[in-house]
Amino acid sequence: MERSGVMSDGSAPSARQRLLLKPDLRGLPPLPSLRWTVVDRRGVLQAQGMVATTGDTGEIHLDKGLPEGLYWVRIIDPESGVLLREYALEVRGGR
Fold it and tell me: Are 37 and 62 in contact (CB under 8 A)?
């Protein structure tokens, strides 16, 4: 497992805005897709799905966004359930 501080350039999205996350998948097993989850700071599941791997990245769409807060985006092997990578995601209040 690898933990990274932020998903991309470090800028935090605003609360409740549609999110497009592009996690770095370099070095992960060569699977056609991976499972992902988003949990809050208490570990409560907020969203989940599958991401198709395209080269070194993939796209995770959160159409309804998330409330303000700190979250963890987890990339998981869909067959074994092993956590492969985890990213912090901060969502700030609307401006």
Answer: no
